[in-house]
Amino acid sequence: MYKKIFLSLALFVLPLPLLAQGIDQRINDLLTPVANAVDGFFMTSIPIPFIGSAPFIVIWLVIAATFFTLYFKFINLRSFAIGMKLIRGKYDTTGAVGEVTHFQALSTAVSGTVGLGNIAGVATAVSVGGPGATFWMIVAGLIGMSTKFVECTLGVKYRDIHADGTVAGGPMKYLAKGFAEGGHVRFGKFLAFVFAILCVAASLGGGNMFQANQSFAQLQNITGGADSFLAGKGWLFGLVLAFFTGLTILGGIKSIARVTSKLVPIMGVIYVVTGLVVIFANIGNLGHAISQIIGGAFTPEAGLGGVLGVLIVGFQRAAFSNEAGVGSAAIAHSAVKTDRPVTEGLVALYEPFIDTVVVCTITALVIVITGSLETSTGVQGIPLTSDAFASVVSWFPYVLTVAAILFAFSTMISWSYYGVRAWTHLFGENKTQEHIFKVIFLVFVVIGSSINLTAVIGFSFAMTLAMSFPNIIGLYYLAPVVKQELNAFMADIKSGQLVFKP
Q1: 132 φ, ψ to 5°?
Q2: pLDDT band at residue 217 using 50, 70 and 90 as cut-offs
Q3: Which residue has the higher pLDDT, 122 or 203?
Q4: Range among 28-42, 65-79, 93-107, 314-328 rated most confident
Q5: Dist. CA 409–CA 89, nearest whole Å
Q6: pTM surpassing 0.85?
Q7: CA separation for the pair 5, 434 (Å, rounded)
Q8: What residue ranges define each of the domains in the chain, with the CATH number in brackets?
Q9: 161, 212, 317, 407: least buried by Cβ within 10 Å?
Q10: Within 13 Å of residue 454, how many CA atoms lie on the same side as its CB?
Q11: Which residues make Cβ contacts (< 8 Å) with residue 281, sequence separation at least 6?
Q12: Which candidate, 249, 60, 257, 71, places its Cα nearest to that of 153?
């Protein structure tokens, strides 16, 4: 079967070298109108009396995150210690159904969020919204932890366990089953159907094309930029990346979890340590950088569109980065081995914290503290981050390139799993449909490497954030179910019925 998959991919991509001249432009010309149309539809701004206007999708996510933070009494902060115990396996039970451990589920989900959005997307957000956008990214990450808790708890509670032990979970399941419990069968199925379609599109956009595009951009940047021997050969990089991605995703969630549980810590350490080196090299500017970030959040320059404009940029970037409310992570977390759904929700709290509060903040701080925002005029995306790293040590962009490719690879293999689960929900949960989607996914790796940044970002933002429409409707409706699970779990710990391992 695997040979057939690679043969199908080869039949599509082998003719590409024959069309090498101008192929990137052809792909771009074809997909840019589609990306612009999708972006315009889902990112429509709505007026806010006496303040201005903001994309409805951003308002939708912020209100939900704030509501769940209050409804669950700041679960994002008060359950940090319990979440860490669960990640370390202190409440693992023998015989629990599932495919992966708490740590592996978290690693897979984190690898799906800690991607090039943390490097390229943050740089773009700071370029557009100024240093103040960083402050609102952090705020969005903190309250987004509560949303992630809700959706990942539901992902485990309403998952399907197949006869062979494999798991199918996520919003497709809890939207359909949760609403059915309340007698709203058709509405639940409709929401699940809409979510699945959007998830497939998002997996091919933000979880695939954006990652391939920006990792190639960084590789081209360090090999000569526009004069690089790779210029115009995005398809060639895409072929290589698709090959290694295919080798991993063909093994399913267990194979993906094995890779991400090793890759995520490595790539995280590489990036964070490198960022800290840059920050400490400019430690004298730290106070000024923090002042710019905090001051810019509330008193931005007039040209940035006011406080609301900076807030929107920051929250939009955080939402795209940590995906809290989008529902994607619930698909990975649902595969965990546990008999208490709320335990995985408590583990999932760490996702937005790692992704946004730590990694995104490192990126933004490096850009601001080095002054690259002022010196790299007109530069956005990953080249801006690269310039910031290079300002300390000339060869640091090579380290960044390694981190960027690792980020891209890990995100892509995780999102391939999300796409598979959504695809099979639409067309049937069987191996044939899984392999069909994997072929499509690998083809889009090549396409993503060839399209320009503007088109990819527009498509990626729109499709990823649009998933939150049906998902958050379900989260509001099923929040009482999650509260019951949480209260029962906490009561069992308090009474001594549940004891963490030493």
Answers
A1: -60, -25
A2: confident
A3: 203
A4: 65-79
A5: 27
A6: no
A7: 11
A8: 8-495 (1.20.1740.10)
A9: 161
A10: 6
A11: 392
A12: 71
